Amino acid sequence: MKPWDVCQWKFPHGDHPAVIVSPAARCDNQDIDTVNVAGCSSKAARRSAEAHELILDLEDGMDWPTLCRCDVLYLARKDELKQKRGSVTPERQRVIGQKIIRLFGLYQP
Questions:
Q1: For residue 66, what is the domain's CATH number?
Q2: Is 58 exposed, middle or buried (0-12, 13-18, 19+ CB in 10 A)?
Q3: Is 96 among the domain residues?
Q4: Domain housing 26
Q5: How many C-beta atoms lie closer than 10 Å to residue 37's C-beta?
Q6: What is the pLDDT of residue 109?
Q7: How far is CA 71 from CA 13, 21, 42, 82, in A?
Q8: Could you give the number of structural domains in the chain?
Q9: CA atoms within 13 A of residue 89's CA, in its CB half-sphere
């Protein structure tokens, strides 16, 4: 398990793809049993992404163009993350990171 892997996880609202957004040190640490994840839809995107979303696709391990939300992060148990689907491309990793920083107000110029 490493940052940017896409796995299946049972969110409070159902089973969906999840993007791991925790740093490698947390993913690798066997004494820590949770990682932060961003949630994705299970259905094909039928609209453009809004400001708090982006679209992931086959290159990222999805079955079709899929909306990924960056405005809510969940704490998932590592042992509950199943079926690695792939990894987010470096270009989209940057976009997710930028959106999280902007949406959470972590950078104030």
A1: 2.30.30.110
A2: exposed
A3: yes
A4: 5-103
A5: 24
A6: 66
A7: 16, 12, 17, 23
A8: 1
A9: 10
